[in-house]
Amino acid sequence: MRRCASCGGSIAGEWTQCPLCRVRLEAGPDEATGTPEVFPPVPLRFDRRQLWAAVVALSVLVVVASFAAQSLVPDLVAPVRTVWLSVAVVWLVVVAAVQRRRNVGSLVGWLVVLLSLAAVAWNAIDGPAYWATTWVIPAICTTANLALGVVVWIIRQDPTEHLAKAVLVALFGLAPGLFVLFGWVVTPVPALVCVGFSVLVLVLMVAIRPRQLGAALHRRLHI
């Protein structure tokens, strides 16, 4: 039996971290003897059909709406192209969540950062002024937040994963807002939509998984 130096709990089994506060434990006799864990990790289960049905329906709806908007307003060619990129982002995020399920937040964060940097580089080489910061990056951040919301809604994950996704949603909403403050946009509408949508997703995440987020905050802040 080992004792956690952070929360003082007594822990049996082969845990490398405290199951309550996630602080790393020192090696003890339980690891050598192979004592079974008192609180074994809970498998992450979800309905794949429900997830894919939600993503497919959402993608079809967005693509059809984009073609309708382009037919009504021909000047929307650039925004419509960012919509198609956004659908690809949704699929990448959901596929990453299905395949990996744990530590998805870091993967999604890197995906958004790399796509945003690629858009900025493309804009610098050949593109209209502030095209990336006005349309592409807000679209990427908005759809990444949408995909994260779908993942939180359908997939039950470790509480720390839910907290990490909430932080990502806040950051993805903050970045386009900074673009508006610094004057890096032609029109502020896409960035403001991204900020508002991020707030909505955060509210829904708290409403859908209040216990998981509360447990994660309890672990991180030791309250």
UniProtKB/TrEMBL annotation:
Q: What InterPro entries does its record include?
A: DUF6320 (IPR046283)
Q: Which residues cross the membrane?
A: 51-72, 78-98, 107-125, 131-154, 166-184, 190-208
Keyword Transmembrane, does the record have it?
A: yes
Domain of life assignment: Bacteria
Pfam families per UniProt: DUF6320 (PF19845)
Coiled-coil stretches, from where to where? none
Q: Which UniProt keywords apply?
A: Membrane, Transmembrane, Transmembrane helix
Tell me the protein's name.
Answer: Uncharacterized protein
Organism of this sequence = Tessaracoccus oleiagri
